[in-house]
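User: Can you help me understand a structure? I only have the sequence.
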Amino acid sequence: MSRWPWQPGAVTGIGSLPGTDPAEAATLVFGELPDLPHLAELPNRGPGAEMIGRTAGMLVDLPVEVAPSGWRFAAHAGRDLRRARDHLSRDLDALQARAEGYRGPLKVQAAGPWTLAANLELATGHKVVSDHGAVRDLVASLAEGLRAHLADVAARVPGAEPVLQLDEPSLPAVLGGRVATPSGYGTVAAVEASVTQQALTAVLAVAPEGGRVVHCCAAEVPLRLLHAAGVDAVSLDRSLLTSADYDALGELVDAGVCLWLGVVEPGVRFAAARDSVTALWRELGFAPAELARRVVPTPVCGLPSATDEQVRATFAVLRDVGRSLLEQQ
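Assistant: Let's start by predicting it. Here is the structure, written out as tokens:
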């Protein structure tokens, strides 16, 4: 079984939060999620602060810029790339100030290689995922950029045990051949499972063993593929799981993969969230005493559109769910 850096009963956020102030976000996260805090993302600041632009800004030797249809590769670094990197730098400064003296797991998030390839464009306007050579370059650049990012976080917070969460909401569409072409009338050919697995493995390998997580808040998550890619945990929207997923979920748990279950969104009450977790665990056939060690409750997805009060209430419910799982040990 993997040695996870988080403790039984831990809960965490997905990543994105409302607001535009990195210091306020860091204070909120460390105050409300002390057992498994994360580097907050604040997409409401605009281009370069959202998932694709933020991660594209980490790429090495692959400059990007904003086009009318989204982010695309550029001939040279310009204002858009500088803005994305400046957003991240300010977030890291705020994290460093708030996390002084902190020891324990610390999560950072980035778009995974396939979500990045499905959303970034080549200079021609076609998606990167349509070009095998461009995908290879992207995977290598992303791995190098994330290695540097994790090293920066470790230097700023020496007591941190880094956890890397790759956000892959577009992975099912890549595998299913559902990524749209520039015209909108066609789709890019499906990518073979073995190719997607190899890319994920290469990027996950930059994180320490025990701290490799893939988050996918879409339906039809390729659970066995993620296991083969080397994840230590999978982060899923509980409401999108069906009985057809149970065999693969059980195999992951048997193999020592931790389940991060999205069970709380604004307005969801403690009892409903707790029962959602325990019902799934019962369906999978595992002992209640193992639940707090093998499951991390999370929000259903990011919270950029929530109010500050809703975020605090969501995190409070999460903490209550985590404590209730511990009581079953």
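Now, to help you interpret it: Strands lie at 64-67, 70-73, 104-111, 160-167, 212-216, 233-237, 258-264, 295-299. The chain has a mean pLDDT of 96. Let me know which part you'd like to focus on.
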